Amino acid sequence: MSVQDFALAAEVAARRRWSATAALLALVVLLVVLSLGIGPVRLSPLAVIEAMFGGGSDVAQVIVREIRLPRTILAFAIGGILGLSGAALQGLLRNPLASPSLFGAPQSAAFGAVLVIALGLADVRSYALPVVAIIAAFGSVFALLAIAGRNAGLLILILAGLAISSFAGAATALVMNLSSNPFVVLEIAFWLLGSLEDRSFQHVALALPFIIAGAAVLLSQASAFRALTLGEEAAQSLGVDVGRLRLYVITGVALGVGGAVAVTGTIGFIGLVAPHLMRPVIGHDPARLLVPSALTGSALLLAADIAVRIIPSTSDIKVGVLTSIIGVPFFLYLIMRERRALGGGVA
Amino acid sequence: MWHDPHPNPPPQAGVGAHLFDGRHRASSHLAAAIAILLWLSSASAAFAAGPRIVSMNVCSDQLVLSLADPDQILGLSRFSRDAWQSWAAEKARNFPRLSGGAEDVLLLKPDIVVVSLFDKRATRDLLKANGLHLVEFTVPRTLDEVRDQIRAMGDVVRHPERAQAEITRLDAAIARARAVASAHHYRVLPLERRGFVSGDNSLINSLLAATGLTNAAGELGLGTGGFASLEAIVKLRPDFILVSEAGDRAEDEGRAFLLHPALERFYPEARRIVLPERLTVCGGVMLADALDRLTEELQRVTR
Questions:
Q1: Chain B residues within 8 Å of chain A (Cβ atoms)
Q2: Beta B2-3 vs B226-227: how paired, if at all?
Q3: Which of A95, A255, A293, B64 has the fewest CB atoms within 10 Å distance of its CB?
Q4: Mean pLDDT score, A125-140
Q5: CATH, domain range B168-302
Q6: How far is B256 from chain A (nearest CA, A)?
Q7: Above 0.85 for ipTM, yes or no?
């Protein structure tokens, strides 16, 4: 390949990345509009637009701006941070099966939140909830990486993740039994399924600062992920402090996932799926994968949250259930594809 | 309504049907009343001072507490002192609290055990098998059923005159509430955590109806009860919502529903009728207090 050919190929790839990102952005905008337009009360598109900009009846205004808008913002932000966290973890571990939910981070964050709810320590709309959830998520990811070690194979990571999720689940059940709130079992059961229903701007204010902080931390490490693809030693010679990078990633994931789980409960598998959908289009550069993965995550969660409103059912379907129903088969497919690597891990 | 247990208890599968079938209910009721009268007359010598009673359900606790003499009460249910569920929680502190299982009841050897058909079946069967006399109450859905239960408990504790006085008190409270409410035909939406709305077949619905208020559940397409969406409630805009708790604390997401800014915008405190759960969760003598509270709340929100 001549130098010119190489430059041409690079240019084609770059153009494809940009057009893919632009298409994703357009898709997200479309889904945001749909999300504002769909709900149990039928409003015409015109009424929605009017209400959005402060016109129309006050009922329509309240429905669009105070019920649907916060839900849409949360779906966008939480889907985004989950996709970004997945891409960052996969970049850090150079491992396509890494994702927050397989590592028990949402489950642990949920344990933190449940602890606050079940023991009645604070109002569910207070900052105590995300703070405790973030601490729990940080603890779980930290523990996982400490247990698995630096160059852990897939098998060890997944086994350790499984152990941590199970532990978080058991701890959640225990806390439930100790609660004096008579509704706690039902509430926590709903919580663990994950839902964006009837969230308000109070919830947005609760989650968004942490999600933005987490996203900023993860995005700032983009070049380090790229260096890391050359191997840990090569990255170190390029000036990447791998130990510090790990700490940054854990912090970013914990901030984002903890903040998200504190208002929606556990929503799984978006972090796993989003980067995989983007890899064939964007390529394997983990730095370039971050933003498209985040957008894909947003699109996935927005679409799932629209779907739960459309699918006819007697009681509302939880969005976390839907993402898992789609995500788990996808995970199984990935395992099948990675079978050789996994088999190697055993041997 | 209640059932006096037959030596061979009737199959409980029939219970649901009794609730909805008025004629069947009336006849089974009569039969039950006769059965208990016969039984009481045959056993009367055994407890001249009135039967000694154990109650195993928080709702029957409250009936027993208001109708029986203190020395008749041997023990009350596990939740009897829970001020959130029981209107008579304070009074219940003067009496032993049971574990909820069969053991301590067997030890107390009461003349009558009052239970709810919603209590654990296995425990009830065990008590019956050990020769205890159980009187089983269901959950009343209408004010008529409430009157029947008060009367029935009056017979069980052998103070029918107190039962009659309580029924008179209840009827007076209904009349007072009617006087305030019936002229306006307000549409009230009884709204619980997570947006649950009580429909036709609920006690709260019969309270509203007796007062001359309209349950807005029907307009939401939830005639038999169910979950209402925040959007639908905001669109319907009933005159008032009826909730069980005032205040601004959301201990969980279910309660946060009722404090959602969209709901608070149209239903601030001044448009929320607050009836504490302990006044409405059971059908019993506390309903008179519930109705008086409803009257006060209506006066507050319509002022």
A1: 84, 193-195, 227, 229-232, 234-235, 237, 249-257, 259-262, 265-266
A2: unpaired
A3: A95
A4: 92
A5: 3.40.50.1980
A6: 8
A7: no
Task: Provide the residue ranges of all domains of chain B, joining segments of one domain with +.
Answer: 2-138, 168-302
Query: pLDDT tens digits for A92-130?
Result: 888 888 888 888 899 999 999 989 888 888 888 899 999
Q: Which residues of A touch B266 (CB under 8 A)?
A: 62
Q: What number of C-beta contacts closer than 8 Å exist between A and B?
A: 74
Sheet of B112-116, strand order: B2-3, B134-137, B112-116, B53-55, B73-75
Cβ-defined contact of B227 to A63 (cutoff 8 Å): no
d(CA B215, nearest CA chain A) in Å = 20
- Which of A40, A67, A117 shows the shortest C-beta gap to B262? A67
- Residue B48 has a pLDDT of 56
Chain B CB contacts of A184 under 8 Å are: 252
For residue range A292-304, list pLDDT tens digits in order: 999 999 999 999 9
Handedness of CA A183, A188, A194, A200 (dihedral sign): positive
The CATH number of the domain covering residues in B2-138: 3.40.50.1980
Locus of tokens 């985040």: A294
Closest CA to A271 of A248, A247, A298, A244: A298
Kindly list the domain boundaries of chain A, sorted by start residue: 65-346
Q: Write down the architecture of domain A65-346 according to CATH.
A: Orthogonal Bundle (1.10)
Q: Do A181 and B251 touch (CB under 8 A)?
A: yes
Which amino acid is located at B271 in the chain?
A: R
**Averaged pLDDT score across all residues of chain B:** 85
> Quick one: average pLDDT of A255-281?
91
Whole-prediction pTM: 0.83
